[in-house]
Every structure is written in structure tokens, then in C-alpha cells.
């Protein structure tokens, strides 16, 4: 049963249930059936769906051309603590009605930032106590917390990459607040998205110092959290641009390099966001594969971009084909390590009904569920795996296998090439692979 509290914000919206693909009820799951087992795990376990506090409860639709369009009934109280409690009530009502087990937040999504750090910290503590009670009264858990070190104008030149040590120290204080909140709420992970960690012009930038400082800063944050008993993973969330022109965590490969360079590989993994991948000119599945290959596929921020424009539109996922290719990576690599699927997505500015928030999340969950079923069918009922194995079969036996074992020298390659003639032309058969995926959609 939904734990609703005194007020009901989403009136008339029932608990969302699975009704199957023939249902015409917009407030029902068509594919996400939480307890259905796929490849040995329930959908609930595969996905660990999470709501992003910032978009779902704070984002009213403002853009550079006009203010927000949405009036949220939980955002009217003038007292910041009461307003934060109302928002938390709305969050938990939404989560329980959706049947989602997790949420994610930035420190100042939970409660408005005060005029100074000391006051802000007090506010966060107060609302964390309230959230703790709400978690205890429900099955909802915290997937990850993070600090917003990019909105406040003091971070206009970066946070841990700031040329001014005083600003870096403020970022440290804020990360400490967010870590304390995450730990107090039993958060399973902690995220660092670069925010304004990057630069606009190399002319005024000491890139090496800035990157080294981020490395030092992340080590300090890790050490502090471990000292407080935090056992979860830290995730870096790569993004190539926006807000800065050159973000230091450009993509998965760049971030993995930094993680290793600064000695963070035992504690840090990646949180891969769909729209960040496409902004970096990669596919979502490419970024997942790069992370998985490094043993760092931690979590996913689910959304989608727009093929015609080049910014972070954060739309809800609805591309089953793209998501199915991503779920192939997920299933083959053994799933997410500690994280889940956080809907870092917002309804469009002109989707102004409260029910639109439910409809959008239902669509996102159904997209992932349908994609998982497709990927599972491809792996278990098609020739996909066999075709792929055949493509690399030359490394299974003979000289190919010896090469893999490290038993050959360059001279051996040369001798083999000279004595075995020209290679046959072997088709990559890309269209055949594409047709197999389509057949199972
Ligand atoms: C920004 C973004 C953030 C992070 C958390 O593009 O994705 O919301 O997920 O700071
Ligand atoms: Co994100």
C-alpha cells in the first residue's frame, strides 16, 4: 500500500500496476512487470528504478526564453523546511504509487540553499531526519546522493577545478554535507557529475593544475566517506560539454583514465547517462561497453537526447531499439554494479498536468522492460551469440589461440602470414545482426 501521509498531491492517481501490452490504460505498465523473471533475475532487481528529485519535484519547466510553466502544489510554502517536507511527502507518494524502490538527489534539491554554508547544513540535517522517517515507513531507499556544486554563482569558475582555493574549500564543505546526508540515509552510492569542472578558454586555464586538484579532491572525499563507514560505490558521471565547453569527464574512456591516474580504481565506477553519451558523439551502448570492459559499469542515468539538436534535452527514454542494444551490453556484462536506472529526465515544458509525470516515468520503465525482453530473446532464441562467436573463431584454436595466450612473437606473426597465404574476405554481416534485433522487437 502507498504510504501517503496527511495530504495527497497526486489526487486520483492510483498505484500503477502491470496490465500488459493490450491495456489502453495510460496509468498502467504495459511491459514493466516488477516480479517477472528475465535471465534469472526479476525486472525489479535488474533495473532498481529511481526517481530524480531535481527533475521530478523541482523542475518547473523554465528555459532561456521563459519561466517555468508548472505550479507544483508541494512548492508553495514560504518556510523552507515546511516546503522541503511537503516536497518529500510528494516524492514518497510518487515513488510508492509508481512502485519504484529508489530515489536520487542533490543536497539542495531536498531543501532550498540558505545564505551561508552553516545554515544550509542545518537545513539539510533537518530534512534528512524527515526523509529517514519516510524511508522507514516505506520500502523506498536511496540509490545515490550528490552535491550541487554548479548552480550557485560562486562556482562559475568551477568547484574542485576552481582557480581560487577558497571556492574549492566551499565545494569540499558541500560534498561533506552531501556525503553525510547520503550516509545517514543508507545511500547505496555517491555520484560526482563534473558540473562546471572544465573550462571555456585555455587562455586563462592551467588545465594540469585543475585536473590534479580534482584528483586530490576526490581522494579526500573517498577517504572521508570510508572513515564514516560508507561501503557503497562512488560514481563519476561523464559528460562532454554543457555547461563548460570542455568538461574534464568528457566520456567513459576519459573518466576511466582519470580514475586510474588518481588511484581511485578500487572505489570509483561510472554512471552512464544516455544523453551525455550522444553529446560525446558516442552511442549509449558504446559508453556502457567501455565502462563494462573496465569493470566499472556502476549505474545508468536514463533519458534520451534529440537527434536534431546538440544539447542535453533530458527527454524520457522511448527508443526501444537503442535501449535493446544497451540491454544486450547489460545482460552480457552481468548487470550494473551497485547502481540502478535513475530517470534523469524531465517532462516537456508544455506537459503541465501532474499525471504527465507518471505517464513519462511509466513510458521510461516500459521502454527498459521491453528492451530487456528483446535483448534476452536475442541472446536465448537467436543465432546472435553463435554468429558473434564465429566471427572471432580464429582466436579459439591454433596460432590465434597461441597469440591470445601470449605465446607468439612478432616474428611468429610474420612467419604465419607468409606461409598461410592472403586472408579470405570475411563479411562483417552488420545488416544480419541488425535484422536479428528487429525480428525480436
Ligand atoms: C547533468 C546531470 C546531473 C547529474 C547529477 O547533465 O546529468 O543531473 O546526473 O548531478
Ligand atoms: Co545525470
List keywords for this structure.
8-stranded parallel β-barrel, single chain, 14 strands, binds cobalt (II) ion, 16 helices
Walk me through what this model shows:
The protein has 441 residues and is α/β, with parallel strands linked by helices. 45% of the residues lie in helices and 12% in strands. It is built from 16 helices and 14 strands. The protein has helices spanning 43-47, 53-58, 80-98, 107-110, 117-136, 165-184, 207-227, 252-261, 274-279, 284-293, 320-332, 354-381, 384-391, 398-404, 410-419, 430-439, and strands at 17-18, 28-29, 37-38, 41-42, 49-52, 102-106, 141-146, 189-193, 198-199, 233-237, 246-247, 268-273, 297-302, 341-343. α3 packs parallel to α5 (117-136), α5 runs parallel beside α6 and α10 runs parallel beside α11. The chain is globular and about 80 Å long. The mean pLDDT is 97.
Short description:
The chain is of the alpha/beta class and 441 residues long. The chain has helices spanning 43-47, 53-58, 80-98, 107-110, 117-136, 165-184, 207-227, 252-261, 274-279, 284-293, 320-332, 354-381, 384-391, 398-404, 410-419, 430-439, and strands spanning 17-18, 28-29, 37-38, 41-42, 49-52, 102-106, 141-146, 189-193, 198-199, 233-237, 246-247, 268-273, 297-302, 341-343.
* Shape annotation: globular
- Element-level helix/strand string: EEEEHEHHEHHEHEEHEEHEHHEHEHHHHH
Q: Based on DSSP secondary structure assignment, what is the total number of beta strands?
A: 14
Q: Could you estimate the helical fraction of the residues in percent?
A: 40-55%
Structural class: alpha/beta
How large is the count of helical segments?
16
Strand content: 5-15%
Distance between the termini: 34 Å
Ligands, deduplicated: D-xylulose, cobalt (II) ion
Low-confidence stretches: none
Mean pLDDT: 97
Amino acid at each position: 500500500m502507498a504510504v501517503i501521509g496527511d495530504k495527497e498531491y497526486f489526487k486520483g492517481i492510483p498505484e500503477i500496476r502491470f496490465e500488459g501490452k493490450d491495456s489502453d490504460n495510460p496509468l498502467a505498465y504495459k511491459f514493466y512487470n516488477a516480479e517477472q523473471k528475465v535471465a534469472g533475475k526479476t525486472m525489479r532487481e535488474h533495473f532498481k528504478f529511481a526517481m530524480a528529485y531535481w527533475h521530478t519535484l523541482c523542475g518547473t519547466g523554465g528555459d532561456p526564453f521563459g519561466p517555468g510553466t508548472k505550479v507544483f502544489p508541494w512548492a508553495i510554502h514560504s518556510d523552507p523546511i515546511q516546503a522541503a517536507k511537503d516536497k518529500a511527502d510528494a516524492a514518497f507518494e510518487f515513488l510508492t504509487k509508481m512502485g519504484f524502490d529508489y530515489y536520487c538527489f542533490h543536497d539542495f534539491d531536498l531543501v532550498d540553499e540558505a545564505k551561508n554554508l552553516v545554515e544550509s547544513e542545518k537545513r539539510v540535517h533537518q530534512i534528512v531526519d524527515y526523509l529517514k522517517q519516510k524511508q522507514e515507513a516505506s520500502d523506498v531507499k536511496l540509490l545515490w546522493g550528490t552535491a550541487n556544486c554548479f548552480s550557485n554563482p560562486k562556482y562559475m569558475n568551477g568547484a574542485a577545478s576552481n582557480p581560487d582555493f577558497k571556492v574549492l574549500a566551499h565545494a569540499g564543505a558541500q560534498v561533506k554535507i552531501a556525503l553525510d546526508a547520503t550516509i545517514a540515509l543508507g545511500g547505496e552510492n555517491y555520484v560526482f557529475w563534473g558540473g562546471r569542472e572544465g573550462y571555456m578558454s585555455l587562455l586563462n586555464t592551467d588545465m594540469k593544475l585543475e585536473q590534479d586538484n580534482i584528483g586530490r579532491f576526490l581522494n579526500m572525499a573517498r577517504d572521508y566517506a570510508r572513515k564514516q563507514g560508507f561501503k557503497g560505490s562512488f560514481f563519476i558521471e561523464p559528460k562532454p560539454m554543457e555547461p563548460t565547453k570542455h568538461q574534464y569527464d568528457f566520456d567513459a574512456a576519459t573518466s576511466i583514465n582519470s580514475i586510474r591516474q588518481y588511484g581511485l580504481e578500487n572505489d570509483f565506477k561510472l554512471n552512464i547517462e544516455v544523453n551525455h553519451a550522444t553529446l560525446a558523439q558516442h552511442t549509449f551502448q558504446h559508453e556502457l561497453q567501455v565502462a563494462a570492459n573496465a569493470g566499472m559499469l556502476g549505474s545508468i542515468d536514463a533519458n534520451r537526447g534529440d537527434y536534431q539538436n546538440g544539447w542535453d534535452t533530458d527527454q524520457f527514454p522511448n527508443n526501444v531499439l537503442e535501449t535493446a542494444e544497451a540491454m544486450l551490453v547489460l545482460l552480457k556484462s552481468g548487470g550494473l554494479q551497485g547502481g540502478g536506472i535513475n530517470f534523469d529526465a524531465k517532462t516537456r515544458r508544455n506537459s503541465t498536468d501532474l499525471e504527465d509525470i507518471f505517464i513519462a516515468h511509466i513510458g521510461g520503465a516500459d521502454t527498459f522492460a521491453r528492451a530487456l525482453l528483446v535483448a534476452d530473446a536475442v541472446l536465448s532464441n537467436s543465432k546472435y551469440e553463435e554468429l558473434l562467436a564465429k566471427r572471432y573463431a580464429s582466436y579459439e584454436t591454433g596460432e590465434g589461440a597461441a597469440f591470445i595466450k601470449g605465446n607468439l612473437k612478432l616474428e611468429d606473426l610474420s612467419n604465419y602470414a607468409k606461409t598461410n597465404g592472403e586472408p579470405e574476405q570475411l563479411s562483417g554481416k552488420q545488416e544480419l545482426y541488425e535484422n536479428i534485433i528487429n525480428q525480436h522487437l
